[in-house]
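Case study: RagB/SusD family nutrient uptake outer membrane protein.
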Amino acid sequence: MKFNIVKIAGNIFLCGAMLLGTGCKDFLEETPPSNLTPDNFYTIPDHAEAAIAAVYADTRFIGNGAGIFSVTWQMLEAPTGTSTTETAQNSDLNNLYSLSYDGNTQHIINWWNGLYRVIANANLVLEKVPSITPMDAAQKARILGEAQFLRAWAYFYAVRLWGDVPLITKPQTINSPDFLPSRTSQEEVYQLIVDDLTAAENAGLAWMNANGRVSQAAVKSLLAKVYLTMAGQPLNKGASHYKLAADKANEVITYANANPATINLFPTYGDVHLETKKNIVEHLFMIQYNILVAGNPMQDMHPNFKPVTFAGNAGTGSTVPTRSFYESYEDGDLRTKDREGYFYTSYFQSGNGAPFELGAPYIFKHFNVIANGTAGVAGTRNNNLNVPMIRYAEVLLIYAEAQNELGGPTQEAYNAFKRIRDRAQLTTPELGTYDQNTFREAVWRERWHEFCYEFITWFDMVRLRKVYNETTQGFDNFVGHVNLGSNQALQEKHLLFPIPRPEMQNNENLRPQNPGYPQQ
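Here is what the predicted structure looks like once written out:
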């Protein structure tokens, strides 16, 4: 039996053809109807639905393993200085914390492979689905809009991580002219991102989708985030793009104000990581997890060998908050209150037993109380919690920051900023006490404290070229800032990650390596 293995949109199809004698040549030349290829797979609407489902599934690469006690997502947290580790077994993770990573670091390799897998399968959807006939026009438009959002989402990560990256918009084979692509300028990559998101805006998507599919709110919010990034470093588009960011964020805020039951801030921080509140209200876009397919990958935030879950002493503690960052919150900030905010300093033995002190603060933001247990209630042991990518809280602070950059704080910018602080039960100085600079830094601080451990802080550091200093409560220049968790200083080279070494070995067109990293 000979097997032809054909990969289509994340699925593997095995097709057999019996090895028969030469007398059956004509029979052997007949195309087996079960031999699925990209050319004959995309023929009915169900194929389109299966293909876009595979692109969504590909986004779960952030949960892929990166060696012992480590996962891909940790690459975007370890270098920020807001976390440290209680385990030392993973050399790649240690290199991320110590800012000594290079193109061999597994997390970096995983991010590259994962993002380009999303892009490749989104390209297949965008190339093949338009020709499916008959197919409901609204269904087709929705699927294409979702694919454009997901491709833009992946490229937005890629361009911020590596700068100039290959821009691939068509399905590839070994015979494709750009099978070994060169890198494309960041300007061109950002243009594709904006074009994709603008097209997705016009795809007829619902404002919100409790089923986890891309929504209009997600598209507009991501576009606002893209414009905010383009306004800052390294493109420095400035006022024009701060205006675009503010206007796009305001579209979401305007809808939310008119429909507060649909889009809003959750009333409590517990709701942010409550399994029953996935894909609704504050959660505008999430990576979907279900234990039947893939369980939530954030368990590396559990304390090292402290029995906070049903599994007992099973945590790795490979991402834990630095004491300095935890203590940088204002006194009385509800986000630091034990088991009510984003941290916890005590829990229940084996998830639901006697309370005990942890001896240090740990990250509660992604802790699933339903799966792991809580006071007197045994956990289900099934961690179906999604991973948040865009929350409404971020839309509010995008608006506040962008609007302020257009000439100083307005009442609307102040109101958006204050809503974040109100939920934290903090007193906010009156609008008139701020000037443009003090309001700017106040919004930045709020971003550090609200979005810690959500893969956002690193990109704020890069676009602002500033890093929050927990000691002074101010902001240092990126280059030269010392991460207190590792006592290592950020360098110019850290503004970009290195191109993965295996990619450069396989494709000479990716050279040269990003500045400051070994060129091999």
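For the exam, be able to explain this: The chain has 16 helices and twelve strands.
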